[in-house]
Amino acid sequence: MEELPKTLESTNSSTCHREARAALFTTINSRTRTSTRRPRGVSRPYRLLPRRRFRNITASANAINERYFGNNVYDPLARPVADDSKAVDVHFKFLLTGIRSLNPITHTLISTALLCSFWKEPRIRWPKRYYGNISTIRATPEMIWTPDIQGPIGRSNEVQTKSFNSLINHQGNASRCVFAELRSLCRLDLASFPYDEQICRIILRPHGLSARLVNLVMNNVSESHPVQYGEWIVHAIKAYTHFNNYGPIELGTGVIEMRLKRTSAHYRWSVCIPTASLLLIALVCSWIPRRQIRTRQELLSGLLLSNVLLLRHTTVLVEGAQKLPNILVLQNFCLGLVTVNIVSTSILQGCPSPTRGGRIKGHETFGVAIGKLDVFGYPTVGALLILWTLFVA
């Protein structure tokens, strides 16, 4: 019976130790929490999208999808108008991103651009507060009606687009932006080469079954910076709507007008300055005195060779021109002037001077001149005819 108080005493002591340890851990935890408390002015870190909110948005998006695009309620082939006889206004915006090629032989311009279409979709509207404050949704081209903007068939215009989604907000405003490759016909007028300025037009119009009831309205063109391709730079872009009569309704066709200008100064030194120099030297050669006839003939021979090479170089540069450039006309005039100088020099060289050999008979002078022309003049005239046949005719 004496051991019972010891057992009770040991039990009470273990309980006291347990309470003391619990109090100690409570004090340590409270100090730790106090030390890690955020100072004033520091915001509490939060998640971008809480889990509960994310679940609500997912459910709201599914509800919108089920309401408008489920159970075949929405017809993507029908135009977004209440009256089928009315046209749909599609606002169009054009942003040029680059030029891939400009072929002066086939007169084709291949460019890349961002094409954006904006229209009203009154059949798809929802209150934001009932659908988790969702303001915008994405839809594939198979889900909603989208305008098919392309180039007219048979006019060498093509628009190649990929499948891009459309955006629809809760007020029924729809938009669709696509990156497209535009292939258009661009007639190059090289009459003022190399100081020429070209105007290329891209014609866009709606296609499809309801193309005649889609009115294309061109907005202002976004010009962030001039686009340069090689020696060409697009320094001005203009977009306007060309109205056509389709029965009782007047609908618009979009026209994009681009002005291209040469920016390279390479042709000034390789074409313009050599042509002016040859023309000036050919005029000066006609004033060389008769006693220096050999120097004149050698100089004219060098001018003839230089003129032929320059004419060939310029012809390659303006290949495909429908109208003869002015620079080629000037070079051909210079070539003819050099040829006339060579022929006259040959005649003068064949005619003896009166002070040296005295007077000679006319038929002898004519025979000597014909002999000199047979050696030098006939090949020159033949070469001139060949050049005229190849480059001009």
From TrEMBL:
GO MF term (any one): transmembrane signaling receptor activity
Membrane topology, from the record: Multi-pass membrane protein
Subcellular location, record wording: Membrane
Transmembrane segments: 267-288, 369-391
Gene Ontology CC annotations of this record: membrane
CDD domains assigned to the protein according to its UniProt record, in alphabetical order: LGIC_ECD_cation
Location of the Neurotransmitter-gated ion-channel ligand-binding domain: 71-242
Main location: membrane
Alphabetical keyword list: Membrane, Transmembrane, Transmembrane helix
PROSITE patterns in UniProt: NEUROTR_ION_CHANNEL (PS00236)
Name used for this protein in its record: Neurotransmitter-gated ion-channel ligand-binding domain-containing protein
Native source species: Varroa destructor (Honeybee mite)
